[in-house]
């Protein structure tokens, strides 16, 4: 038997196994959406709005499993090491890419061990301030005196390496200024201190800041989205405030182990795109100043690759080290 014939037979066997896997999927049991963050958070809420509709489309139970840890690493690792059969899916945010840039040693390799299913959407972030803070616009904020004893440019975030921290660091690099970053263990404590006036400014997800902005307890300065949010139409984007192309929203996406058969991946991808049409999913994302995106698995993998490069540069340039 010739080598060419052996290669053809091997390729046929792989194709047959993949096709068979797709025909059987998902009949073996529930599909787990592994969320690496706590129950009740924004990411968890979106996952729980999606899982029911996704289960209806796939005609299989889809359950949300929370594995909270710093940056969602524990949940991502569990998926990376799971059977590549489409029954264990990571429901993650852009810390998926940030972690690869931030941590010298992860228990998995983001690009080698996982591949994208669907880019669910993105959630806006916002630069906001205590009402008594000196700056009310981005340019005013950037022109404040350098941080020092006056503490004029103190900026809270949800933790070292959190999306808000890197969004602010990226703005620093573009503007050529320095902030005094004040990291907290989560956005909640940071918001509390900004409300109390201990720290004048914060950059964090819009969802946690919006109720306070609407009540007048905080003032919105700018959003990180490429376009203004319908929830805050009078708040300018950082891009239009002097930094064209700036886009540091928090994206949400689904991933599976790298060896998952393409036929299974495609079926899961198409079912997810259909589930994203659900009014409940749309409302849940838009209520957090977000937008649905969709897109192909290949586009998601390309986004992860580019974001790892971008975040690696930010981490290196600013000497950011994980807690």
Looking at this protein, list some descriptive labels.
alpha/beta; single chain; D-Maltodextrin-Binding Protein, domain 2; 12 helices; 323 residues
SS element count, helices: 12
Count of folded domains: 2
**N/C terminus separation:** 58 Å
Largest sheet data: 6 strands, mixed
CATH-derived topology of the largest domain? D-Maltodextrin-Binding Protein, domain 2
Work out the strand percent. Answer: 15-25%
Low-confidence stretches: 3-21
Helix share bin? 40-55%
SS class = alpha/beta
Task: Trace the largest sheet across and list its strands.
Answer: 2-1-3-10-4-11
CATH superfamily of the largest domain: Bordetella uptake gene, domain 1
Number of strands: 11
Q: Could you characterize what this model shows?
A:
The structure is a single chain. The protein has two domains: 11-123 and 250-318, Bordetella uptake gene, domain 1 (D-Maltodextrin-Binding Protein, domain 2), CATH 3.40.190; 125-241, 3-Layer(aba) Sandwich (D-Maltodextrin-Binding Protein, domain 2), CATH 3.40.190.10. The protein is of the alpha/beta class and 323 residues long. Helix 4 (95-102) packs across helix 12 (297-318). Helix content is 43%, strand content 19%. Residues 3-21 have low confidence and may be disordered. Strand 1 (31-35), helix 2 and strand 2 form a beta-alpha-beta unit.
């Amino acid at each position: 038997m010739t080598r060419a014939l052996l290669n053809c037979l091997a390729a046929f066997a792989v194709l047959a196994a993949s096709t068979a896997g797709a025909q059987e999927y998902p009949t073996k049991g529930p599909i787990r959406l592994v969320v690496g963050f706590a129950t009740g958070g924004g990411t968890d809420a979106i996952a729980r709005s999606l899982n029911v509709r996704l289960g209806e489309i796939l005609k299989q139970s889809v359950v949300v499993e929370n594995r909270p840890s710093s940056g969602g690493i524990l949940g991502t690792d569990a998926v990376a090491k799971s059977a590549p059969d489409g029954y264990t899916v990571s429901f993650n945010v852009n810390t998926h890419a940030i972690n690869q840039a931030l941590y010298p040693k992860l228990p998995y390799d983001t690009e080698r061990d996982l591949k994208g299913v669907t880019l669910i959407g993105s959630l806006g972030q916002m630069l906001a301030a205590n009402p008594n803070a000196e700056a009310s616009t981005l340019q005013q904020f950037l022109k404040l005196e350098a941080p020092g004893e006056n503490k004029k440019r103190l900026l809270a975030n949800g933790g070292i390496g959190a999306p808000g921290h890197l969004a602010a660091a990226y703005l620093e690099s573009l503007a050529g200024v320095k902030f005094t970053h004040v990291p907290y263990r989560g956005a909640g404590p940071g918001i509390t201190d900004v409300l109390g006036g201990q720290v004048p400014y914060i950059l964090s997800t819009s969802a946690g800041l919006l109720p306070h902005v609407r009540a007048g307890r905080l003032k919105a300065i700018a959003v990180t989205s490429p376009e203004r949010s319908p929830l805050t139409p009078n708040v300018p984007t950082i891009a239009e405030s002097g930094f064209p192309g700036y886009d540091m929203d928090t994206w949400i996406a689904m991933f599976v182990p790298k060896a998952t058969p393409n036929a299974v991946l495609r079926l899961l991808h198409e079912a997810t795109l259909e589930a994203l049409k659900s009014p409940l999913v749309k409302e849940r994302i838009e209520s957090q100043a977000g937008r649905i995106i969709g897109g192909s698995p290949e586009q998601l993998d390309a986004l992860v690759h580019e974001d790892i490069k971008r975040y690696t540069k930010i981490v290196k340039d600013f000497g950011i080290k994980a807690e």
